[in-house]
Structure formats: C-alpha cells, structure tokens
Amino acid sequence: MDTAIEIRGLAKRYGEGDAAVDALKGVDMSVAPGEVVGLIGPSGSGKTTLLKCLGAVIEPTAGRMALGGETIYDGGWKVADLRALRRDRIGFVFQAPYLIPFLDVTDNVALLPMLAGVPDGEARDRAREMLAALDVGHRSRALVSQLSGGEQQRVAIARALVNRPPVILADEPTAPLDSERALTVVRILNEMAQRFGTAIIVVTHDEKIIPTFRRIYHIRDGRTYEEAGEARAA
Amino acid sequence: MINLAGRDILHGWGKFAFTGLGLGLLVGVTLSMAGIYRGLVDDGRVLLQNGGADLWVVQRDTLGPYAEPSSVRDDAWRSLLAVRGVAAAGNVTYLTMQIPHERGDVRVMLVGFEPGQPGEPGFLVAGRPVTRSHYEAVADLRAGFRLGERIRIRRHEYTVVGLTRRMVSSGGDPMVFVPLRDAQEVQFTKDNDALVNERARTAANPAFNRPGVPGLLEAVQASQSASRSVNAVLLRLAPHADEAVVAREIRRWKHLEAYTRADMDEIVVAKLIATSSRQIFMFLVILAVVSAAIVAFIIYTMTLGKIREIAVLKLIGAKNRTIAAMILQQALGLGLIAFLVGKTAATLWAPIFPKYVLLLPGDAVLGAALVLAICALASLVAIRAALRVDPATAIGG
User: Omega before A42 cis (within 30°)?
Assistant: First the structure.
C-alpha cells in the first residue's frame, strides 16, 4: 500500500539526565493517501508531541518519518528547509481556528500560496475555489470576527488544504463545536481527504466523532496501538 | 504578497490612531523644544542683523553691549567716524525693563538710537519712523502696543508712532526704540530725590565747594546730573572696507573694544545663550530617549498581543523576514503618524509660546528621520521577541 505518512520507532525525550522525560517511546504509524485516522489518548500521553514531530516543529530524538515515500527524518532531519516543508506539504487545523483577524476570509486562505511564491491573483483564485468547496465561498469577503465558529473552522480547513498538502494534522478540530457542527467538520475532512487524496490525522477526545474513523491509533505512555474500525464495531 | 502590517493597521486603525496621537504629542513636544532652541539662536542673530551694523564698539575689556554692561562716552562716535573705512556711526543704549500696560507689565528692551544711523529699527510694518526728538517710540509687535497708544516709561509718556517685527533681545524680549537722549535719561539719569541728595553731598565736599572758585560747585553738579554715556557705538563700514582691519585700528588707537559680526555672533550664540541652549539640548536628548523607550514599549506590547498569530504564521511557513517586516512596517507606520501629529501640533501651538519658536523645515526633516530611526530601532526588541516565538505554540499542548 502507498503511504502518505510512515512512522517507525519514533521517540522524543525532553530534558536530560534525571529530569529526562520520554514523551514518545517508539511510535509506529502509517496512513494512506485519502485516509482519515483518529489519534486518541489521555492527557500527557504524547499526542501533541507526536503532532509536533510530524509537523516538523520539534525534532524527534530517534526513529524515522516519511511523507509521501520521502524520508524527512531518520535520526536527524533529511530536509533542509523545514519551513518550506510545513508550508508546502503539511496542513494544520487547530482546536481554535487561529485565523489572522486582520485579513478577510479569502486572504486568510490565500496567504499560504502567497507565502509559497504564488502570484496574488492566482493565490486568491485558489483560495476562493477551496472556500467554495467547503461551502463558505459566500463569506469570502467577510472578516474573521464576522464568522460563526463552524464557518471559522471551515476556513481553517480551507487554509490547511489550499496548497494541496499530502498530509493534514488536525489537533482537536471539533472541540469548540456542538455535535452537529463537529460531525459536519469530520464529514468535510473525509470528503476533502477523498477528493484530494490527503492523509489526515485527527487528534481528538471528542466522543461524538470517534465512531466516524475507520482506523484509530491509541496513544498511551508514548506508545501507539492501532484499532481498526471493524474491531471497534465488534 | 499581502501587506500584513498595512492590513493590521487598517483593521485596528482606532487603536493605532490613538497610539499614534499620544506618541505624536510627545514628538510635538520634542519638535517644539528644537523650535525653542532655534528661536533662541534666531533671537540672538536678529538682534545683530537688525542694527544694520558691521562693527560694535564697546567699552574695553568687556563683551558688551549684549553679554556684559558697557559704557562709552557719547561723543566717541566723532573720532570713530574719522577711522578709515567707517561710513556711519550711531550711538545706542540698551536697557531691559518693565513697562506698565493695561494688560499688565510688559518686559521690553528699551533701545536708544539716532535716526538715520546704525542701530535704528530696520523696517516698519505699520506707522512711521520716529521724527521728533523726544517722547516718540517704535515698538515690536510682540510687545502688544497699538499705534497711537501712549506708554509710560519712567517719568515720561511716549506715543507709539511705528510698529516693527522680529526686533527682539537675545532673551526674546520685544524692543521699544526711543530717541537716544530719552533713552540715556531713562538709563542714566537719577530720580529727583537722588539728585537732591547727590547735590547736597557734593556741596558738603570742600574739594568741590571752594569759596575762592566761583562756579566750580555748579559745574560739578551739572556734570553729575547729565548723562553722557551710551552702551555702544554701532559702525557701518564703507564698501570693500576690511572689518578686521578697522576693528584692529579702533582697538589700537581708540582704546575701545571693537567686535565684528562674527565676533558678536560668537558672543551672543556661543556665550550669552550657551547655557540655555545646552539646557534645551539636554532636554531634547532626554525626550528622545523617553520617546524611544515608549515606542519600544508600544511596539513590544502590540507584538505580544499577536504572539498566537505570529506562531501560526511561522507554523504555516512564513519566513522570519516576513514577520520582521510586518513589525518594522508597523513601527514605521506608527512613527509616521506620530510625526505628522507631532508636526501639526508643534505648528499649531508654536504661536502660543511667549517666546519665539522657530520650526525649520530642515529640523522637521531631521525630526522625521529621527522618529523613523527611533521606531525602527525600537521595533528590534519586538522583532527579537517575535522571532523567538516557537511555531509549536500554535499547536498547543
């Protein structure tokens, strides 16, 4: 099977000596293109550390990570420009939308391709296209403060998808939403994954959306355990 | 690429405008201080220009007539006129005093001059020159006198017949020009009681009241009550005359001190107002430091308020220079607003100051450059803080 994300034996240690804490102790994970998997675990289990390692914002201590078949970490970073890696190949959706309040909806989304060097006009076209796909095209000129929570989260998803990254990391994306909106966001993530072939990892505590994942990784004490949808249904 | 700084400013323009307004008032105070300093220097320079003199002849070993008291006999001009290269000579007296007025006492510099000679008011903006020998005056507009108004100077009333402009002392006091004889009387003649007392003392002195020398006592008393001194003689030189040579001649043969325009400029600007200008300069430096600290604090606070956005920008791939440019542009924008507010404020409130405030375009340009430079420097602290933001903080945990 082709893998969008391949992680083997990933470890992360904070601190040194007696104060050292092993947040990740050999994580294994693989996600196929177009697949949405859940990552669940109690507080302090290492979810966020794993997400930060995957997002190339902190450096693991050991192990191997590959995106789209290309090794990005193997005992050390294999990519020179981590900023470009995050910009072009990883999308982020956060618990709160964290949109830029002084930009309108279109420019919030268009900012990413602009940062990648895409001309302004083309970047805005791409943004509008993505916003339309997420049913918020009619709010393209609105400011962030004029949107509802659900609309803001859709815009955040559009921003994560606009550069068509092979991977999206979603950190509790439904936490602030009610059940209906939370399920809508998950549906959108699944649709986008299918449509663009994007592998999506959703970190969540949200009981409402856990049943929607076909595969779930549990993380506990820095280790992951896979649970297939069929097993859960049984 | 979107101008992030511009969008942020437009989004929060109210907060930005108020911050710029507050900072602008501080810049206005700074520009006004520079204007006060320039006004001080300009007051000294116009004092020298308005006399129309090329040389100032004063009492030997003094820095008169403006920086130190000086007394010269009022007939010295005759011999000075005989020096080669001297075209005109005019006696002058200067006396700073209070003149009672309907709006309260007015502090003026009373100038005694000889019409048609160096030292007279250079131009009039209203009225006519002094034509009578006594009790007429020409006043600077800043004194607040009106044409035809009668003002009391010591024992006599004077009619204001002409008005002039920018004729002030080095301290900025407006000048009032009166005929030389009147000014000498004001400055040197004693009051009646003092004269009576002085005459009695002289009469009691056997050296002056000798029975065998009729007329001696009267002659001495007459000389004591007459005023035959002036503060300086202003000379206008003939074309092509070398002022340094003429000054040297006067020092050598007339036993008086002669100062050229350059000498007087040095005395007035470098000596007379040196302490005041240093005082103002120190205040300017402190204001600049305070402004820089306030700008740094404001920019830093504004940046800290956007830490989450900055973390997200870094996480999604914004380059450090994009974030640094955003903060720098905002700092410069704030500086620009502050300068415009400050310049406007300084221009509006300059005429209200009791002394002359000279706002030079060159100082405004320098001020703008300094404000922008201070803002740019002040933004470095905020930029440093922004660049240290860990993009991982956007993810939380």
Answer: no
What is residue B184's three-state secondary structure?
helix
Low-confidence ranges of chain A (pLDDT < 70): 1, 228-234
Q: Which helix (H) or strand (E) holds B314?
A: helix B307-315
Give the number of A-B residue pairs with CB atoms closer than 8 Å: 81
Question: Domain of A80: which CATH number?
Answer: 3.40.50.300
Same domain, B152 and B78: yes
Cα distances from A136 to residues A155, A186, A188, B123, B396, in angstroms, run 7, 16, 12, 76, 27
Domain that includes residue B9, residue range: 4-43+275-394
Q: Name which of B8, B309, B319 is nearest A83 (Cβ-Cβ).
A: B319
CA nearest to A84 within chain B? B317
Residue B53 lies in a domain: no
A6 touches chain B (CB under 8 A): no
Best of A51, A81, A83, A144 to disrupt the B interface (most B CBs within 10 Å) is A83
Task: Evaluate whether residue B49 is within a structural domain.
Answer: no
Query: Which residues have a Cβ under 8 Å from the Cβ of B189 and sit 6 or more positions away?
Result: B225, B227
**Minimal Cα–Cα distance from A149 to chain B, Å?**
17
Highest mean pLDDT among A83-87, B137-141, B165-169: B137-141
Contact A51 B395 (CB under 8 A): yes
Chain B contact for A79, CB < 8 A?
no
Out of B4, B309, B316, closest to residue A86 by CB: B316
Same-domain check for residues B158 and B249: yes
From residue A168, how far is each of A52, A80, A171, B178 by CA, in Å? 12, 21, 10, 91
Structure pTM? 0.74
Report CB contact under 8 Å: B396, A94.
yes
Residue written as token pair 């020159």: B129
Residue B115 sits in the same domain as residue B238: yes
Question: How large is the ipTM?
Answer: 0.80
Query: Looking at CA atoms only, how far is residue A93 from chain B in angstroms?
Result: 9
Contact A120 B2 (CB under 8 A): yes
In a domain, B91, yes or no: yes
| In a shared domain, residues B72 and B31 | no
Structural domain count, chain A: 1
B241 with B284, same domain: the answer is no
Q: Are strands A215-220 and A199-203 parallel, antiparallel or unpaired?
A: unpaired
Task: Please indicate, yes or no, whether residues B99 and B145 belong to a single structural domain of this protein.
Answer: yes
Q: Do B394 and A101 count as a contact with CB atoms less than 8 A apart?
A: no
Distance CA A65, CA A75 (A): 9
Give the number of domains in chain B.
3
The two beta strands, B72-73 and B229-230, are: antiparallel
Instruction: Supply the range of the domain harboring residue A173.
Output: 5-233
A48 and B10 within 8 Å at the Cβ level: the answer is: no
In the predicted structure, residue B80 carries a pLDDT above the cut 60: yes
Residue A82, chain B, CB below 8 Å: the answer is: no
Closest residue of chain B to A43, computed from CA coordinates: B397
pLDDT at A33: 93
